[in-house]
UniProtKB/TrEMBL annotation:
Organism listed in the record: Azospirillum melinis
Pfam families: HTH_1 (PF00126), LysR_substrate (PF03466)
Protein name as annotated: LysR family transcriptional regulator
UniProt keywords, alphabetically: DNA-binding, Transcription, Transcription regulation
Family: Belongs to the LysR transcriptional regulatory family.
Listed CDD domains: PBP2_YofA_SoxR_like
InterPro entries: LysR_HTH_N, LysR_subst-bd, WH-like_DNA-bd_sf, WH_DNA-bd_sf
Polar residues composition bias: residue spans: 297-314
Length: 314
């Protein structure tokens, strides 16, 4: 059993297919098959069921895949820690909701890049549910997500609260159809859930939903008079949207949305990650204080009640 074998086990378990695992590992299928067979002979158990539709892990295979995931993440963390200790900067992969990336992160990134130019930093935008899955899988070192998070394998630190508003075109809505059209992210987004509740409370029922995957597309369509959306006030008040959109307040129960930074509870907090969070506090703190309450946190693991899907945000 070696790292290459563990990578093969994890790839087959994740993809459910030898061909897809080979593609992910950039090798030929025969190498994947041979590695699996060698491991099964070494351990004396079947790791996968060979089915017509692909490969499915046996109970033993699921156990080994779980260990492979942890070992490979630990190896990656060790490489980054050694690189940091050697003064080579290391790597840092952070996820973020698109609205947070657009409004909150630019001054943070500028400060971090200035103070830590050798760190290879990657920012991955996405909806909260996707970001949570990527953090749990070790693909991200941490992520800014929306809503309450409850998972035994995650540490969640509450960073600030966003004020959500109903955004309409500044020139007003000219048709009843536009008043009853919600322009939003997909259903995994808490902004979408809050928006649907706001539409119902305002009596704009029945309403239809137009889904988009990009923040600028949503705001552009609202500005063009196609409908309304629910978005953080900080987004509406930045250029160029401040002249194109009007922000209508929501009831308090719908308006406040916590933004939290999550990371795996068993992951080592690298110097790069600590420096990034310090840069966030220093660069984003004044802007957040002006637009939303900064929240302190102990950073303890969240409760064992599973992911709170109803609070997912984009």
């Amino acid at each position: 059993m070696d790292l290459a074998g563990l990578r093969v086990v994890k790839a087959v378990a994740d993809t459910g297919s030898v061909s897809r695992a080979a593609e992910a590992l950039n090798c030929v299928q025969s190498n994947v098959t041979a590695r699996i067979k060698r491991l099964e002979e070494d351990l004396g158990v079947d790791l996968f069921l060979r089915l017509s539709r692909g490969m499915e892990p046996t109970p033993a295979g699921r156990v080994l895949s779980g260990y492979a995931d942890r070992v490979l993440r630990l190896v990656a963390q060790a490489r980054d820690a050694v690189a940091e200790a050697a003064g080579r900067g290391g790597r840092l992969a952070v996820g973020s909701m698109e609205s947070t990336a657009a409004v909150r992160l630019p001054p943070v990134l500028a400060r971090f890049h200035r103070d830590h130019p050798d760190v290879d930093l990657t920012i991955t935008p996405g909806p909260t549910e996707t970001l949570l899955a990527d953090v749990l899988a070790g693909r991200l070192d941490g992520a800014f997500v929306g809503g309450e998070v409850a998972h035994p394998d995650l540490i969640a630190r509450r960073i600030f609260d966003e004020e959500l508003v109903l955004a309409e075109p500044a020139a007003g809505l000219t048709t009843e159809s536009a008043r009853r059209t919600l322009i939003a992210f997909g259903r995994a987004c808490a902004y979408r859930g809050r928006a649907e509740m706001a539409m119902r409370e305002a009596g704009r029922v029945p309403f239809r939903v137009m889904e988009f995957g990009a923040l600028d597309a949503i705001l552009g369509c609202v500005g063009a008079g196609m409908g309304v959306t629910v978005i953080p006030r900080a987004v509406v008040e930045r250029n160029p949207w401040r002249d194109l959109l009007a922000a209508r307040p929501l009831p308090d129960a719908l308006a406040r949305m916590p933004t939290q930074f999550v990371r795996r509870a068993d992951a080592i907090e690298t110097a790069s990650l600590r420096a990034f969070m310090e840069a966030f506090s220093q660069a984003a703190g004044p802007a957040i204080a002006a637009n939303g309450a900064m929240q302190g946190a102990t950073g303890s693991p969240t409760s064992r009640t599973g992911l709170n899907g109803s609070s997912a945000a984009c």
